[in-house]
Amino acid sequence: MISESYKKLFMVNTNPLKRWLITACMIVACVTCCFAQNGSGYFNQAVILFKSRNYFEASQVFEKYLATEKNSRPRSTAFAVEKKVKGKSSMDPHQEAVYDLAECYRMINDYQKAEKYYKESIGFSDKAYPAARYYYAVTLRANQKYTEALVQITAFLDKHTQLDDLLLGADRELADLKFIQSQSERVNDQFTLNEIKGKDPVSGYALTRRSGDTVVFTAITEEKTKTGETWYLNTLFESLASDNPLQGSDPMDLPMEPGEHDGMASFTHDGKTMFYTRWTKKNNQTSSAIYMSHWGKKGWSKPVKAPDPLNVEGSNSAQPYLTEDGRYLLFSSDRAGGSGGYDLWASSLDSILEPIRVLNLGNIINSAGDEEAPYFHNKSHTLVFSSNGRVGMGGFDIFYARGNFNLSDWEKPVNAGAPLNSSKDDIYFVSTDEDNLWNTGWISSDRASECCLALFSVKENNTQYVDGSVIDCKTKQPLRNVILTVTDLRHPDRVLGKYKVDSAGHYAIELHNSAHFRIHAVRPEYAPANADFNLKDIAGRDSLMNESICMNAIEYPEKEIEKLLKALERSSHVGNFAYKKAKLSDSAHDNLDSLAIILKKYPDMVVEVDGYTDGIGGIKYNLGLAQRRVDACIHYLLGKGVSRNQLVGKAMGKCCPIAPDSIDGKDNPSGRESNRRVEYKVLKH
User: How far is the C-alpha of 185 from the C-alpha of 18, rounded, in Å?
Assistant: First the structure.
């Protein structure tokens, strides 16, 4: 039997699925027309579809059968007496249809409808339908009716005494409900989750970072085959990591064969090598493997199947995650040697990403159920994954455990609890904060859907209250009229807020999910000042008292200015250049360093940088050469922190020699060298 995990592991999106369901309904309608339009025709067709695991189609035909049923409990139909089922003297088509319909809806994760029919099924014989009450409790829990679910699972355990999978499942379900109760009794305000909705048909899941601000996620695309058939395929999309990465995304250009699905990718630190999952479905059986592709001048290379032992013949491997240091590839697989269905495995890699050895992460991490979607947070040495084999809130829950790959030493996994986990499936957690695992990130969950995974942003509800004051560095007196701009240290263009100090020079800043930030202070007649913060722990609410930010007053004494201007006039020569060159000499570097110090000290000062050439060559060529020399000087000054507003460049060419290029008709090399120069003059002070 296919693992329950695959219903979510390779899940389609809601909107494309709805269109697929419409198509499926049309197919069902056409098929059922071929059968006699009576109860037996519908019933027999539904049973065939159910046994072939076409659960959606079967549900539609079972509904037709129940809608046209003349008698709610037929006893004398021909097909009723022909079929015998263990525990049933003769199969009642109505009861069989109701129970199988409940099973269909459960298998396609429509728990609302499944609940309705399981509720009717518990009125049937316990001997004929021993699992009815158990699955009724499961659907109640999935629909967040926890009190009713507890009543039903307790009633099931009171009657069901046979030591079998149902009993084991019921014990787990009871433990899950008790865990849910414990979660509901505490304040679940640690995180805020927001569903991210894309532009139809892109509604993604399983998001991961490629490099920089680029992210990749899995989504559904609609494809037309050469014969006109419509396929709904999982495809990798690429986007920028904005507040909504699903908007403005583009599909990755990976060669695919018809019927192939791509998803769940992971990348090397430079984003140029990708491991991902490729799978196919045939006769309702899923076959998956890990593939690789490399980024080059022509885009992504043709994907190749990763070598053994990442993939093992006769088993499935999926959901690769490459650790930040590139030393280990984590993945989920149902290969032999595991603890249950799908286990987590780790492969050590060599310097060219070839697998060295694959090891099971052991029974501390792996359970008798399924473990999937591994992610490793490097700074905190924490493994995050999803499991349906442990006590939780239902379906797949997110768990975490600290440990070490080298020693295979892992702590006991801890359930992340609500609201990260829900009564549905919660999977594919990744953090976007390299220091604080839970500060910000993404997960995929079907908590808001009848069937399918959607992407949610995760933010830990932490707040930093930063208090402080701005003072004059010399007098130590508070300063008014100071404007503060707070930016993200790692993303300097990202402004977190702007503030103004009060009349006493005091400021109070409120920030959220910000471990690394800079406060930039600006006031007229003062040099700008900065204060940087790098916080190790920002969980919850915290007040930070900052040392005073001191600002230096900019002084312009007239005598100092006059003296400075005279000095600048005497030393306005920057340097000379080699013939036809624009490379700065060492002496030019020294002169520009001195000029940079002055310009930064006096931010209102503006200088004009003039470039000259010798007399050899045409006017157009020499103007271009002079401009390159000017640009070289300005670029150097900008690199030293001088404001662009303080610099004006002008190409003079060969207009103004300070020495003759020739003497008595003979070339004068030293004169031409003197003319190949850059000078500056003060325009404003």
Answer: 37
Q: How many Å is the maximal CA-CA distance in the chain?
A: 130
CB 150 within 8 A of CB 432: no
Tell me the β-bridge partners of 250.
238
Q: What tokens does 371 get?
A: 């473990």
pLDDT value of residue 558: 63
Name the phi and psi angles at 47, rounded to 5. Answer: -65, -40
**pLDDT value of residue 131:** 94
Which pLDDT value is given to residue 602? 84
**What number of other Cβ atoms are within 10 A of residue 667's Cβ?**
10
Contact 78, 24 (CB under 8 A): no
Predicted local confidence at residue 31, as pLDDT? 45
Burial 330-339 (b: 16+ CB within 10 A, else e): bbbbbbeebb
DSSP 645: G
* 553 Cβ contact list (under 8 Å, min separation 6): 472, 473, 474, 525, 526, 527
SS3 label, residue 46: helix
Q: What is the spatial distance between Cα 21 and Cα 82, in angstroms, rounded to a whole number?
A: 33
- The tokens of 568 are what? 């600048």
List, for residues 342-373, the tens digit of each pLDDT value. 999 999 999 999 999 999 999 999 999 999 99
Q: Residue written as tokens 């769940």?
A: 264
Task: Please spell the DSSP secondary structure of 231-254, one letter per residue.
Answer: EEEEEEEEEE-SS-TTTT-EE---
**Under 8 Å CB-to-CB from 350, ≥6 apart: which residues?**
356
Note whether 231 and 222 are within 8 A (CB).
yes
**Contact in structure between 520 and 528 (CB atoms under 8 Å):** yes
Torsion angle in degrees (nearest 10) through CA of 609, 614, 620, 623: -10
Q: DSSP label at 554?
A: P
Report the alpha-carbon distance of residue 445 to residue 457 in Å, rounded. Answer: 11
**C-alpha distance from residue 486 to each of 440, 491, 552 (Å):** 19, 11, 20
Give the C-alpha separation, 605 to 607, whole Å.
Answer: 7
Q: Please give the Cα distance from 202 to 200 (Å, whole number).
A: 5
Do 511 and 466 touch, CB atoms closer than 8 A? yes
Give me 356's structure tokens: 């060295």
**d(C-alpha 507, C-alpha 546), whole Å:** 10
Can you give the pLDDT at residue 542?
Answer: 60
Residues of the chain with pLDDT under 70: 1-39, 70-90, 185-188, 200-202, 225, 230, 241, 407, 451, 535-544, 556-565, 567-571
Q: Which two tokens stand for residue 642?
A: 């001088």
Burial of 148 (0-12, 13-18, 19+ CB in 10 A): middle
Nearest to 436 by CA among 374, 494, 512: 512
Determine if the peptide bond prior to 309 is cis (ω within 30°): yes
Tokens standing for 208?
């991961």
Q: Does residue 587 contact residue 575 with C-beta atoms inside 8 Å?
A: yes
pLDDT for residue 512: 80
Helix axes 93-107, 55-68, angle to 10 degrees: 150
